[in-house]
Fold these 3 entries.
Entry 1:
Amino acid sequence: MNTATALTWRDDKQSLTVSLGALDIATYTYDATDEQRESPRPFFHPLRTTAGDTVTVYRPWDHVWHKGIAWSLPHFGADNFWGGPSFRRGEDYKWLPNNGRMRHEGVLEAGLDGGAFHFAHALSWWTQDGKHVVDEVRGIRISPGPDGSSWTLVFETEMTNVSGRDIQIGSPTTEGRENAGYGGLFWRGPREFAGGRIAGPGGASGEALRGTRGPWLAFVGQHDDSCRFSTVLIADDTANAQHPPEWFARSEPFACFGPAPFFSEEVTFAAGATMLNRYAVVIADGDSDQGRLDNLAATATDSLRQQKVASHP
């Protein structure tokens, strides 16, 4: 579907919505009010293709802390900024009083420039017991694709450790659960995407890609009702410290994937240090063969070469 139309946006002081013509393609809830056990944090939902198909899900019954696309870290020292129970070596998953919150502090910039929408805001991270551990500046940029059948979201996070101590960032895998290294920018797809196709560079596909390294990964799923296909692709910035990252991805029993920079090895987030991670997410209408995936990945890579959205004030 070709929608060579200008972007517009609106803000209700808790979330913002970006539209392409008359179609709302992205909503970003930047001031989340979820339950503490779900680790309240900003999230993108719904996200829609240019054909109007929704490619995210919010609070699915099996994991109510999964919310569209969200920056989520399950093993941030002893704290959980992912939501839900925490995996502990020798104890499996258990509910702990450790679900942190990412609190919106203020909008830094918002507007349209050069045909793209940009937004930046400041956040503070708080543990469940009230400790202030991170100050963050987060930026997003949304731009229409070159052919009208896709659009791109650039997501960047600049976190500073203000806890006064070093923090080890890991995953369930670093805690002892095999091949479960999720944590980072995480996408949860619609229920009907279960059984869809995970695809990577060079024609690689399937759940065997979980835990492998690569510059990008994609998921192709089919919708109920319309029976159309959609493609979601995420590319890692070459400047990210763990590039190319390992990836967490599942097709069954539900669709999800994302770069997992802390998959198999803990990373020390030193006291006072700043950690920058940037990604490009392409939301595309239709199925994608390898040639199209390569083109979408090139679009994502090009978008990451542009100037950062925001810096610390």
Entry 2:
Amino acid sequence: MKKFRFFSIFIIALSICGCSSKPQSNEGAVPKARYLYAKDYMADPSANVFNGKVYIYPSHDWKSGVTTNNHGEAFQMKDYHVFSMDDVENGDVTAHGKILDLKDIPWATSQLWAPDAAFKNGKYYFYFPARDKNNVFRIGVAIADRPEGPFIPESEPIKGSYSIDPCVFEDNGAYYMYFGGTGSSPAGLSSSSARVVRLSDDMLQFAEEPRPVVLLNKDGKPLGSSSNYQFFEAAWMHKYNGKYYFSYSTGNTHFLCYATGDNPYGPFTYQGIILTPVVGWTTHHSIVEFKGKWWLFFHDSRPSGDVTWLRSIKVIEMRYNEDGTIKTIKGGGSW
């Protein structure tokens, strides 16, 4: 009888303490980033969900021998690769190999920087910046029947295109391109803000003139180039709970920041920092929802020993607060 009474008291105590044999949720745990591909240097990961998988389209860093970097000369990327995964958190990453090479792009001469991809009507469209024969950055497009390519480039860049870092965003059947990078536009065109433009129905041209992306502070005034949170490059767009989230890199202050608006054209009101500085000068990202969670893909230079032009791609879960703001993630850098 005493043994039974003691056992009963023990069970009650366990119940009061909340002890259970059921596995505990890790929802409150701080997310941890993981590197995705250790065999080579990749950067600027553009993540898209196609056919139930996440496909990642990065730029491809390599040891070109160019070390001066006053105007990005050290970033001499010459081809593109693609990767895929069906489990972002713990799954294997499949390397599909090269999908496009500089030598196969008739109009391009150098610097295949950050790309993006989109799907429409059974075709996959790959958008990329490169310098043309006049040493001006233009944006090209290549087409494939499968997300892993191979992609066949158009013979000319998009007419009227300029600058870098294209991001293509679909909304209610229309496709918009965001692009831009301070100092990367041809003479006579301001590059102090990002641009947004609707694409043509065939996805190969602009359907209108690009317009500036207007960033405002909380008082409704222009954010301004003197702000620590100004646009520099790496435009990205995603939608969450009916709001449009425009995110970007700030350059010299090394943040990934975001602003929100009510339509794809903006204006967008600054909200805060997504990612604090990483190891390495540049920061570039993409944001995608997959299997009920949101993911931030980005890069840093930790594996290369802080060589800015030798970067590695990684991913971390991105979480929202109840009011729709994004919880800031620590990048691990010391800028």
Entry 3:
Amino acid sequence: MRTSLHRCLAAGLALAPSFVAAADADVRVRDELVHLTQALMDAIPAGKADVWQRTLADDALVIDEFGRRQDKKAIVDSIHPFPQGMSGSIEIREPTLRLHGDTAVLGGQMYEREDVFGQSLVVRYIFSNTFVRRDGAWKLLAAIDVTLPTAPPALAVEGLVPRDYVGRYGYGPGRAYEVALDGGRLYFTTRAGGTRTPLDAIAKDVFMDGGDERNLIVFRRDAAGAVNELIERRKFNDLRMKREPAPTP
């Protein structure tokens, strides 16, 4: 038994250098692809289309945050310097790598800062870039990114009466949003004792919820001015809910 243990230990020690070498190779490839991706992002505000021409594979496909599908020619033709008064930068953060031979998938977050005539905007994206190694050089074959929903700046809305919206709004048997008020802040729950999702006012009768999707919540009123409907606008669709009568005391 002791001999077998010694053999296992010896085999493990023999394999250790190969594991270290593979890990080092992954780090080198990751850093190279981060550099290539960062160069692509830096080229956008400067209008350096040649960087995209050089880095994209000829058969590349890019899907942006709006769902637009573009090939190499469309992407390269779209790169122009930002107009005067507008500037921006995109920083690659938290990169990860999946390496399979001559194919590598780089993922992470893009942190975008924009300046629009003195107004500062910040947008975050999750991205996935697929590179292939051709003739010894990494080329971007496919790219996709999605916008990360984030909390919007708070707005002061005049004439807002939060208690107008308190109530239960149903959309199916046993299904409803319960809108309530706590300390002057509106929130809703989808079941008794469930997680409270805050509602942030954008305008009178229009809110953005504090959930992961940051959906719009629109309240509708009847001819007498009383709130009688809640509309959750999610993924460009409307889920309508009718206000239920208050329970009889």
